[in-house]
UniProtKB/TrEMBL annotation:
Organism: Kribbella karoonensis
GH18 domain sequence ranges: 247-538
Stated family: Belongs to the glycosyl hydrolase 18 family. Chitinase class II subfamily.
Domain Fibronectin type-III: from-to ranges: 146-235
The enzyme's E.C. designation: 3.2.1.14
This protein's UniProt keywords: Carbohydrate metabolism, Glycosidase, Hydrolase, Polysaccharide degradation
Single annotated GO MF: hydrolase activity
PROSITE patterns: FN3, GH18_1, GH18_2
Range of residues in the leader sequence: none
Top EC category: hydrolase
Membrane-spanning segments: none
Protein name: chitinase
Length: 538
């Protein structure tokens, strides 16, 4: 057993700038939804007050220099509903309190020289307050070197109201925290650590100029790169065409035998519009690279030629067959530009070899939004606009737009087909209305799905992922009637539990199940009952 020994350094001190907001400003904080208030501070004369919206959790953050492999304690006094305190990419905690309550988050840094601390509430909740934020521990060396200037800014994919921007990643010894985009003479807008972003709310047939700079965790920003102009179209542009029906049923097909019914692709019921072949394999010789190996022995002698022919037959019947990357034991990682290039090139080769229609990202060991987004955009540019791209994150991965999976979904929104979140093996989670729901209910499914809908995805990009039987997952199985009620609640406002959306989303894409094999072992109930319901949605 190995033990991490906290590093020793100078005497502990509070490393937070403007920790009690006594400057009367938000100096030192990145806090778009916040203001300084004199109303009932915890101490002194001021406190932070931040107000979430229906599409924003009201986050305020600060990047702080620290020492690697060292123990710290983060604390703050908070007041309000569902107030979170945490470290970006690390530990967090939360509380609901009508009076001042102290939250504490102990953590140990990894091999990093800065961390970003944050506070936030939840979508559409009332304003919350924060005061006396403390990061207790030894300070790190101040970083005063800005990142390199991002280059290669390009503008494309025009619609009547939006333009898509892409640029090359900048570099910095301590990493990039975010990029700022300026449109014309407007104020800079932080768009996160991404290399693509879509400007929305634009006027039709109008030319706009943009420029981009990079900022590191210490607040150092590069000079802006050269401005580039783009023009919106004079008419609306439809979402990417993938030839899927407006409401679709997705099923994962197992390329292995784990006790479920062994199937050929030809055995998958016609109710499944999209079949995700699970899973691709990691290419050990190429970081980020993938391969695919049909488990012929485990599938009763199913040959590669039969497999390819069955894919073609499904496609001739109007279905799509894609390759899923990841799974519970998936070890593929795309964490830099080299791995992104390897992923794109190897995936293109596998897709063309077997005739797959697209790719599914189901990496349960996490994703890097920047580089996986870069990989998928590269793959789509080489494969063509018909590429189907789906994702199957775990429930926890889509709880907030600040998670890497959510960042990835938004970064590739213009080419993304469906996100089918796994609403199982989840326990209890916060819903979009600030309430906590346990898995296995209509409320859990609907209040989780609306997080994606409120967070920026189109309804046609949202699907509900549930297990096909009680044996298909460790927990979270529900009867098909519960799935159908959730679909009705979200698309029609009927069949809801305690949570009912203020307005329905009729174009919600549909449902997904793990797996077609477990469904077959359960009498194909998901295909017949949920599939039939999906195809009957408005």
């Amino acid at each position: 057993m190995a033990f991490l020994v906290p590093g020793s350094a100078s005497a502990a001190t509070n490393l937070v700038t403007n920790s009690g907001f006594e400057s009367g400003t938000l100096s030192g904080w990145n806090c778009p939804a916040g203001v300084v208030t004199t109303s009932d501070p915890h101490s002194g004369s001021y406190a932070l007050s931040a107000t979430p919206s229906s599409s924003d959790i009201g986050q305020c953050s600060q990047s702080i220099a620290v020492q690697p492999n060292t123990a710290y304690t983060l604390s703050a006094w908070v007041k309000g509903s569902n107030v979170y305190l945490g470290v970006d990419g690390g530990a967090s905690t939360w509380t609901t309190s009508s009076g001042w309550s102290q939250l504490t988050v102990p953590f140990t840094t990894g091999n990093v020289t800065s961390v970003t601390i944050y506070v936030h509430s939840w979508y559409a909740l009332p304003a919350y307050q924060v005061d006396d934020v403390v990061l207790d521990g030894p300070g790190g060396a101040a970083d005063t070197t800005p990142p390199s200037t991002p280059g290669g800014l390009a503008i494309g994919s025009p619609t009547s109201s939006s333009l898509q921007l892409t640029w090359s990643a900048a570099s910095d010894a301590n990493g990039i925290d975010h990029y700022d985009v300026v449109r014309g003479t407007a104020a800079a807008q932080s768009v996160g650590n991404v290399t693509s972003w879509t400007a929305t709310g634009l006027a039709a047939a109008t030319t706009y100029s943009f420029k981009v700079r990079a900022c590191d965790p210490s607040g150092n920003c590069s000079p802006y790169g050269a401005a580039v102009s783009g023009t919106t179209s004079d008419g609306s542009t439809n979402p990417p065409v993938s030839s899927l029906p407006a409401h679709a049923l997705t099923g994962y097909w197992q390329n292995f035998n784990n006790g479920a019914t062994v199937q050929k692709i030809s055995d998958v019921p016609a109710a499944y519009d999209l079949i995700a072949v699970a899973f691709a394999d990691a290419d050990a010789s190429k970081p980020g690279g993938i391969t695919f190996n049909l488990d012929s022995a485990g599938l009763g002698g199913y040959t590669v030629d039969q497999f390819k022919a069955d894919i073609k037959a499904k496609q001739a019947a109007g279905k799509k067959v894609i390759l899923s990357v990841g799974g519970q034991n998936g070890s593929i990682a795309v964490g830099d530009s080299t791995a992104a290039a390897n992923f794109a090139s190897s995936a293109l080769s596998v897709l063309r070899t077997y005739g797959f229609d697209g790719i599914d990202i189901d990496l349960e060991n996490g994703v890097n939004a920047q580089y996986m987004g870069q990989a998928l955009k590269s793959l789509q540019s080489q494969f063509g606009s018909g590429l189907v791209i789906t994702m199957a994150p775990q429930t926890i991965d889509m709880q907030s737009t600040s998670t890497e999976y959510f960042k990835l979904a938004l970064a590739i929104k213009d080419i993304l087909t469906i996100v089918n979140v796994q609403y199982y093996n989840s326990g209890s989670m916060n819903g979009c209305n600030g309430q906590v729901y346990s898995q296995g209910s209509v409320d859990f499914i609907t209040a989780q799905a609306c997080i994606m809908l409120q967070g920026g995805l189109r309804p046609d990009q949202v699907g509900l992922g549930l297990p096909a039987s009680s044996r298909a997952a460790g927990s979270g199985y529900v009867d098909p009637s519960v799935v159908n009620n959730a679909l009705d609640c979200l698309t029609k406002g009927t069949g809801c539990g305690g949570y009912k959306p203020s307005s329905p989303w009729p174009s919600l894409r549909g449902a997904m199940t793990w797996s077609t094999n477990w469904d077959a072992a359960n009498g194909n109930q998901f295909a017949s009952q949920v599939g039939g319901h999906v195809h009957g949605l408005p």
